[in-house]
Fold this protein.
Amino acid sequence: MPSTFTLVTESSHSVEALFDLSLDIDAHVASMSHSKERAVAGVTTGRIGLGESVTWRARHFGVWFTLATKIMELDRPARFVDQQVHGPFTTFVHEHRFESTETGCRMTDRITVGSPIFGRSAERLILVPYLRRLIARRNRRLLGALA
C-alpha cells in the first residue's frame, strides 16, 4: 500500500505564472541543483506538455537514481499530474493543483509513493519526510525564480 502526503505552498504570484513555471524543465533542474538532478532523455529543456515524458537522473540518499515520468493529465492552469513510467518506485504519482487566492495563488502537491525497498513503516518514517522536504525546497526555489 503506497503512502500519500500533501504539501500546500502559498504564493503572491499568479496561478498562470506558477503553473507554467512548474512545467518548465529548466526551472525544475535549477530548483533541484542540490541533488544534481538533470533531465537526460525525453523533453530535456523548456516546458513539458500533456503526454510528454522526461527522464531524470539525480542523487538521493547518496545513490544515483533514474526516474522517467510522463504528464498524464493537464488542465491549464488548474492542475497537472505526472507519473512514473519507469524508475525506482512501485508507485509515484505527483498531482499539482493551483488555485487563485486573494493574495495570489495556492499550490498543492499531492504525492503518492510506494517503495520496493522500504517497508510501510520505514516508508512513512524515512521516504515521505525526505520527499516532503525535497518538494518544499523545490517550491521555495520556484517561488524565488518568480521574484
Notes: Residues 120-146 form the longest helix (27 residues). The radius of gyration is 15 Å. The chain is about 30% helix and 45% strand. The first strand starts at residue 3 and ends at 11.
